[in-house]
Design brief:
Layout (H helix, E strand, L loop, with lengths): L7 H15 L4 H25 L4 H11 L12 H5 L7
Length: 90
């Protein structure tokens, strides 16, 4: 249906318009940013596919044994410290 939607001339005109809008100095930065975004997207898609694979069940069981079980709070509070107040400075 849209087989001839973007012919060679259309692509050339599109590139000229992009060049006029963004300017020549910004094009390498835009291309670099686009490449990094595509790389991140591909790695995320690969990660999602790996999570859905049958091997993920064995990986989950090994992750559970590596956990330390700490909650992040350590130490104890002293009841004498919580009741004492420091006098205000003049």
């Amino acid at each position: 249906m849209f087989g001839n939607a973007l012919s060679g001339w259309h692509l050339i005109i599109l590139l000229v318009v992009i060049l006029l809008l963004f300017g020549a100095p910004k094009l390498p930065g835009l291309a670099r940013s686009l490449g990094q975004s595509m790389r991140i997207f591909r790695s995320e898609v690969k990660t999602m596919k790996d999570e859905n694979s049958p091997d993920s069940a064995t990986n989950d069981s090994t992750d559970a044994t590596d956990a330390t079980g700490t909650t992040g709070t350590t130490g104890s509070t002293d009841s004498a410290d919580s009741n004492s107040t420091t006098p205000p400075k003049p």
